[in-house]
Amino acid sequence: MSARIAACRACGSRHLRPFVDLGETPSANAYRPPEDKDKPEIRAPLRTVLCEDCRLVQVDYDMPPSDLFSDYAYFSSYSTSWVEHARRFCLAARQRLGLGAASQVIEVASNDGYLLRHFVELGVPVLGIEPAANVAEVAVAAGVPTEVRFFGVDTARDLAARGLAADLIVGNNVFAHVPDINDFVAGLGIALKDHGVISLEFPHLLRLIQEVQFDTIYHEHFSYFSLLAVERVMGRHGLALFDVEELPTHGGSLRVWVAKDGRAALPGGLAKVRGEEAAAGLDRNEIYDAFAARVARCRRALLDFLSQAKQERRTVVAYGAAAKGNTLLNSCGVTSADIPYVVDRNPHKQGRLLPGSQIPVADPSRIFETKPDYLLILPWNLKDEIMGQMAEIRGWGGRFVIPVPEAKVLP
């Protein structure tokens, strides 16, 4: 069962302020077989709040993690740009940290081995921690040692007791997926060697607000992080940031470098991002209070686009059966009557129905069979990659559309 939180999941404060309410929706990754189309779906409120004390934005209803992640349809390796991003990180981290055959790298939420496989190729010992058994199986088959379990204090203690404390712990886009932040952060400290380093990547709350990226809000994302909030939660567990990088991934992310040995902060990154957040007003309430109205305008713009296309008898189909797309479609009330199908390269999603909207998922080849007028790119953060893959649609006059921050037909 879902449960409403009464206090901030990070600091325990009960001073929670509304941020944005996207209605009741199913889990964004609960893809369905066609035979279940008429069966009821489990839905829960998709509502977010701001902690006025530690500034953490968070969903205020929790779906059980076992329902969200035990059988997961997201496989990182189907995004070529994301795999390349991971490869570059591994090369840079090996050089920066001097990693080698005597080192230990642990990745939390290691998915299908998309990242750790690069360390394996570099001769660096690795271990993946991945709660989705179906995804972990793919990683193991690719030669990436992986254990099927959730990460927290208990797992960290077990790893340390087995002599697997890490020189580097990597967590890419997992921090937001953790319902118990304090258990997770405490576990990071336990599983880390005294002079080890943690690298976490997560979408930056500042970019979410500035660019109206409300579709990145879904039940699997329990929290939405500013640097301000992250520094506070790390500090409560004896960990400190010593560097931060701003990344273009996922519409604008942060990569924070964290340690527990009191090392001095590097000049540049931390001061820059702290300044950006202060200038934007993330330490005040006004910027959060204005967000819901901006979301309403974005949703209306998409519905107006779909309505106009229908009036003009133009077909609109979608690319990318992504979780963010499901939030967008369900919060707007879009169904297969508006968008007859969506395509995705991931065969684990093909042949299924999107949760809520019930739009069927097909192989990308269907685009070239039906020749739609518009291709709506749901994972807009990958628009350049997708437009490159689907460039042939321009041959019959097809055009690309992105939905965020406002529905826009691309030139």
Major pleated sheet: 7 strands, mixed
Overall number of domains:
2
From the 3D structure, determine the CATH topology of the largest domain.
Rossmann fold
Number of strands: 19
What is the share of helical residues? 25-40%
Question: For the record, what CATH class of the largest domain applies?
Answer: Alpha Beta
**Per the principal axes of the C-alpha atoms, what is the gross shape?**
globular
Low-pLDDT ranges: none
Provide an overview of this structure.
By secondary structure, the protein is an alpha/beta fold. It has 2 domains: 76-283, Rossmann fold (3-Layer(aba) Sandwich); 291-409, Rossmann fold (3-Layer(aba) Sandwich), CATH 3.40.50.720. The protein has helices at residues 65-69, 80-97, 116-121, 133-141, 153-161, 181-191, 205-210, 227-235, 269-280, 286-289, 291-311, 323-332, 365-370, 383-389; strands at 3-4, 16-26, 43-51, 57-59, 61-62, 105-108, 126-129, 146-147, 166-172, 192-203, 223-224, 240-247, 253-259, 316-319, 342-343, 361-362, 374-377, 399-402, 408-409. The protein is globular. The protein starts with a strand and ends with a strand.
